[in-house]
Amino acid sequence: MLDAIKYPAAPLWTGDFYNEGINRENLFDKLKEECGVFGVYGHPEASHLCYYGLHALQHRGQESGGICTSDGSQFHYHRGMGLVKEVFDNDKLSSLEGAVAIAHVRYSTAGESKLANAQPLVFKYREGDLAVATNGNIVNAPEIRKRLERQGSIFQTSSDTEVVAHLIARSQHDDIVEAVRDALAELNGAYAFLFMTNGKLIAARDPHGLRPFVLGKLGDAWIFASETCAFDAVGAEYVRDIEPGELLILDGAGMKEDRFSPSLKRAVCAMEYIYFSRPDSDIDAVNVHSARKRMGRQLAMEAFVDADIVTGVPDSSISAAIGFAEQTGIPYELGLIKNRYTGRTFIQPSQELREQGVKMKLSAVRKVVEGKRVVMIDDSIVRGTTSLRIVNLLREAGAKEVHVRISSPPFKNPCFYGIDTPDRKELIASQKSIEEIRKAINADSLHFLTKEGLIESIGRLSDEEHGGHCTACFDNVYPTQVPNDEETAAAACGGCD
């Protein structure tokens, strides 16, 4: 067993709690989810449906939540910082009257974590009330914002969503559908939008289909969500995925299917299958849990190692670990346990205690791993600090060997499409070889899933490039134009929603 472990030092968080604001201390060096959107058209309990839908999407954003409803003549809305259960109570939900609603959970990336940026954003413009909620990131938002500011626009938030609202307000068209179409034509990036007025609900998905967006039905009501798991939470039936470049308009006349752009090179975010989406969700009719199990099986075929047990890092790696165990015949065990009740902590411990902070949320099961050769399955390695901490946890618990297997290719490149990623220089896979990473995380062996194995494992029926996925974080091939230098890159994600 190793002597006392010295974890890498990092500055203390500066907010009131560890997951607040841009200086959050990330005890688990994981990529952060983007946001989640949920919408209802034509149900008398629209606000309550949104509440349960947001609960199901809570994994996509934990910093703020909001619901805006329309009773046909005016908006009612409430937004707040924190988890959905902290933002809403029965009285607040009951005050949100109307049969039409849009809702949002937010995780800010480089943007500010404050109430002004919580969504849905609500505006007054010449045609009346407008509410907007989105998941994703507009790559050219900084450029558009500067242009609009020179033309006299005054911004109240640092969110991309407000940029789009200004474009709508400045459109030459009075008709909201045409104004939305004008605004979307100027955007470059990844997004799933919900727009609401007192007469219409409009849904739009980016032309590459980077961000997931699905349509469902509950009785006569239409439901929109970032993931199908939200439909299960409210008892809705999945109808279909919204198509890239599609525009759906709902009003008193029913639902109209339209387009604001032709479908471009399809590029569904591969990380949705690997990590972000809940395992009970389906993306393009592919179940996420099943895809992750296939990734684990493929990883076992590509990088078998003789061992005593297989364990997964909770929660997103459990499915892949099960697949690895099934393929190899090595028993799957709960070698790592996640504490689900830590919530937000308002303490700021000493540096010494903070260095052990990972144990607040994760612990090794000594009686399971002691004296064993362990295969540890994880979904990705970002900076490498978390992998080091977890490998050392297993060694401290008496593991004889720790072999790390990653169910994705090496994460080498930053994302510009709404995922909170470090600069390229902070991504360990862009700076070190696999052998150097192995040494850095203190593992006995290390292997990553190949990109070809990943695409095959996801199993989407597509003859498009990269299987119709965005794999830019692995291969540096971006489906849209992105900034070239790191400074511009940081600005481009400054308002990631």
Topology summary:
Elements: E1 35-41, H1 46-56, E2 64-70, E3 75-81, H2 84-87, H3 90-95, E4 100-106, E5 121-125, E6 128-138, H4 141-150, H5 160-169, H6 176-185, E7 189-196, E8 201-205, E9 214-218, E10 221-225, H7 229-234, E11 237-241, E12 246-251, E13 254-259, E14 268-269, H8 270-276, E15 282-283, E16 286-287, H9 288-302, E17 309-312, H10 318-328, E18 336-338, H11 351-354, H12 358-361, E19 362-364, H13 366-369, E20 373-378, H14 385-396, E21 401-406, H15 428-431, H16 434-440, E22 445-448, H17 451-458, E23 469-470, H18 472-475, H19 486-492
Parallel strand pairs: 14-23, 17-20, 20-21, 21-22
Antiparallel strand pairs: 1-4, 1-10, 2-3, 2-4, 5-6, 6-7, 7-8, 8-12, 9-10, 9-11, 12-13, 15-16, 18-19
Helix pairs in contact: 4-5, 5-6, 9-10, 9-17
For this entry, give a set of tags.
497 residues, alpha+beta, Glutamine Phosphoribosylpyrophosphate, subunit 1, domain 1, Rossmann fold, 7-stranded antiparallel β-sheet, 6-stranded antiparallel β-sheet, 19 helices, 23 strands, globular, disordered N terminus, disordered C terminus, Amidophosphoribosyltransferase, magnesium ion binding, EC 2.4.2.14, 4 iron, 4 sulfur cluster binding
Give the overall form: globular
Cα-to-Cα separation, first versus last residue: 44 Å
What's the CATH class label of the largest domain?
Alpha Beta
Note the main sheet.
Answer: 7 strands, antiparallel
Give me the secondary-structure category: alpha+beta
Task: Tell me the count of domains.
Answer: 2
Number of strands: 23
Q: Over the alpha carbons, how many angstroms does the gyration radius reach? A: 23 Å
What is the name of the CATH architecture of the largest domain? 4-Layer Sandwich
Could you please say which CATH topology of the largest domain applies here?
A: Glutamine Phosphoribosylpyrophosphate, subunit 1, domain 1
EC number: 2.4.2.14
Active site: 35 (nucleophile)
Cofactor: Mg(2+); [4Fe-4S] cluster
Enzyme class: transferase
